[in-house]
Amino acid sequence: EGRPLRILELGSGSGFVIGNFVNFIALEDPTRKVRGTAVDVNDKACAAARRYFEANQLADRIKVVHADGLEGVEASDIGRCFGLTGDIFILNPVAVTSRMCPLPRPNTQRP
After folding, report:
1. What is the maximum span of the chain, computed from C-alpha positions, in angstroms?
2. What's the distance, Cα to Cα, between the start and end of the chain in Å?
3. How many CB atoms lie within 10 A of CB 66?
4. Helical pair 43-55 and 16-28, crossing angle rounded to 10 deg
5. 3-state DSSP call for residue 27?
6. Could you give the C-alpha distances from 21 to 15, 16, 98, in angstroms and in order?
7. pLDDT tens-place string over residues 51-99
8. Other C-beta atoms within 10 Å of 45: how many?
9. pTM score
10. Order of strands across the sheet that contains 62-66
11. Cα pseudo-dihedral 70, 11, 21, 7, rounded to 10
12. N or C terminus of the chain with fewer C-beta within 10 Å?
């Protein structure tokens, strides 16, 4: 039986990525215990992740932490991801859009 595989995702947003990791591992090996921690700085994203996990029967396996980076994440969750073989750490930063950071326009003039 062994210890559960631990997955920690920073910038989890709606929870889609970590939720799919947990589901995929469970499908590949139904006997393997999988536990996750989804971390996001946005409270609306955390609420969306909780709804996603509830709707997909994942709420008992993935906890949601509203925090900036690793602030507020239990040291045991971090240690399980960084200190033990086979665990997964996902870094999923915010996508920067052109509205947030305007991109330079391409040069359309020909020499």
Report:
1. 68
2. 68
3. 16
4. 30
5. helix
6. 10, 9, 29
7. 999 999 999 999 998 888 766 666 555 555 554 444 777 777 666 555 5
8. 20
9. 0.72
10. 62-66, 34-40, 5-10, 88-91
11. 0
12. C
Tokens (6 digits) for 105: 């326009």
Kindly state the tokens that stand for 86.
């086979």
List, in sequence order, every beta strand (DSSP E) within the chain: 5-10, 34-40, 62-66, 88-91
DSSP calls for 77-97: HHHHHHHSTT-EEEE-PPPPP
Structural tokens at position 33: 């215990």
Which position has the token pair 């993935």? 62
Tokens 């999988």 sit at which residue? 34
Q: Residue 10 forms beta bridges with which residues?
A: 39, 91
What the block records as the tokens of 57 is 């029967």
